[in-house]
Specification:
CATH superfamily of the largest domain: P-loop containing nucleotide triphosphate hydrolases
CATH class of the largest domain: Alpha Beta
Number of helices: 16
Structural class: alpha/beta
Shape: elongated
Amino acid sequence: MTKPSAPPKQRMELLREALAKKADYVADEKIGAALFLAEALQKPLLVEGPPGAGKTELALAAAKALQKPLIRLQCYEGLDETKALYEWQYGKQLLYTQLLKDKLHDVLKDAPSLNEAMGKLLSLEDLFFSEDFLSPRPLLKALREKEGAVLLLDEIDKADEAFEAFLLEILSDYQISIPELGTFRAARPPLVILTSNETRDLGGALRRRCLHLALGFPDRDRMRRIVQAHLPNIEDRLLESVLSFVEALRQEDLRKSPSIAETVDWARALLLLHAERLDEPLVKKTLTALLKMERDAAAVLPRLETLLSAEKPKKEARGGRAL
């Protein structure tokens, strides 16, 4: 995607262009720099911010821009290495045990002594704990990708502190240890992106191993470019009304403010209805595309007139026409 011989600033810009062209992801300089440095320095990138700010989408876009497979691990309370790293296929092992039992006489019939018979049995034990019986989970899959991958550890703040400690070896040396098989090292380290909604404080050891990116809701200019990237045919008047209304909503005391994706979905719904401007009946009909909690919608509906006129004073102060 980028030329290794190109100057770093040029490679950074090429990465931002690839995010826009291949993934419709509008990255500002801060986001582009963080992603570029994470890839160039082979350091994990910890992305923190409110739900809906585009943290997970950044990892999806990075995979497209870098043309690497995306391997995702959704974190949750109680997640352990069995679900994240690997799991033995016990059913397959049991079948192998039954097969060995049926063939045991044939295997041992040529052994002249008990010691040699034990030696043969021990060699068969090595087959029992082999990669043939190993079912790789996301962490092991990412390390085994020969051309590298983007490994997304989504909502790491939902996992337990014990899982954080388990991750340290992987994030430091891009390797994992399996007692029965030894150490697996990545031929090409994955680009690791961890996301957090900041529901709890992450440990210092994990933070020290990562680059950090604080990702909030986009400013108006970036939000405008995001919507236009997804909906190039949207009229300026409608787009500005959408942005003003969403900005006003984010100032309200809502349990869940509209995300970037929900804003784009709402704008798409308005286009589908051939809307040219916002009014109360239209917003009431389409609000479910923007607000996903009944309590939030109930709080907003009585204030629609105020929220829809939030931008008018600014327009009039500049001598412009209100939407």
